[in-house]
């Protein structure tokens, strides 16, 4: 039996997921864990990357409905889980993902206001008992998230263009879900990057040691 694990980094845009993933990999490496596959959602396979483009691009002549968005996200997720994540875990690789199902619970459930029961039904139907082993949630107020996205200077995509209220609802749902789940830790993403990285390192170390017994 191998002891590979699935780790997810979550949070609003600009929360620092990219840096957090680098820190996770560095910490795992310091424990001799070097077989690591890094992926992202939506995306991570050729088909899921095509779906990502459809999901985040604006289509003025054919506006994406909330349920279309939701189903596209799950289509991309299932493709990634079945063709990349599960096979990697089976081969003994650790997997680190930039977002996973918690994003749908927060953005589509909180931001869009899609019914929680419906989300759970879809999740359970397509993912069954597949869950991350450990999730790092980077908590950032939407105003700060917006500042960082604007500072980045790149084109604003369809979801990033949503209102501040949308991101407030998304963050509130993240906070609600995190409070309920002991496999998720929260990092204050307002802190300077070095402090975020140190907190991530400490949480991973703690989690690894509590899992090695
Ligand atoms: N989405 C969804 O709705 N439902 C779902 O189920 C899934 C996704 C899976 C694409 O995701 C969109 O899909 C996303 C949610 C939706 N849309 N929105 N809005 P994505 O993960 O690809 O996109 P993103 O969240 O917009 O990525 P991002 O902007 O790259 O976020 P990040 O990786 O967390 O940020 P970063 O690149 O690490 O940092 C951004 C900048 O902030 C950069 O200049 C950093 O240097 C700076 N930064 C980061 N941390 C700090 C700290 N601590 N201090 C100061 N500056 C910092």
Give the number of helices.
8
The CATH class name reads: Alpha Beta
Q: Tell me the fraction of residues in β-strands, as a range.
A: 5-15%
- Succession of helices and strands: EHEHHEHHEHHEH
Helix content: 55-70%
The strand count comes to: 5
Largest sheet features: 5 strands, parallel
User: How far apart are the first and last residues' alpha carbons, in Å?
Assistant: 16 Å
The set of bound ligands, ions and cofactors reads: ligand Z5A
Q: Name the CATH architecture.
A: 3-Layer(aba) Sandwich
CATH topology-level fold name: Rossmann fold
Cα-based radius of gyration, to the nearest Å = 17 Å
Integer average pLDDT: 96
CATH homologous superfamily classification: P-loop containing nucleotide triphosphate hydrolases
Structure, explained:
This is Thymidylate kinase. Belongs to the thymidylate kinase family. The protein has helices spanning 17-30, 46-56, 66-90, 101-111, 116-127, 142-152, 164-179, 193-211; strands spanning 6-11, 36-40, 94-98, 134-139, 184-188. The mean pLDDT is 96. The longest helix has 25 residues, at 66-90. The protein is globular. With 213 residues, the chain is an alpha/beta fold. The protein is built from 8 helices and 5 strands, in the order βαβααβααβααβα. It has one domain (6-211): P-loop containing nucleotide triphosphate hydrolases (Rossmann fold, 3-Layer(aba) Sandwich). Bound molecules: ligand Z5A. Ligand Z5A binds next to α1, α4, α6 and α8.
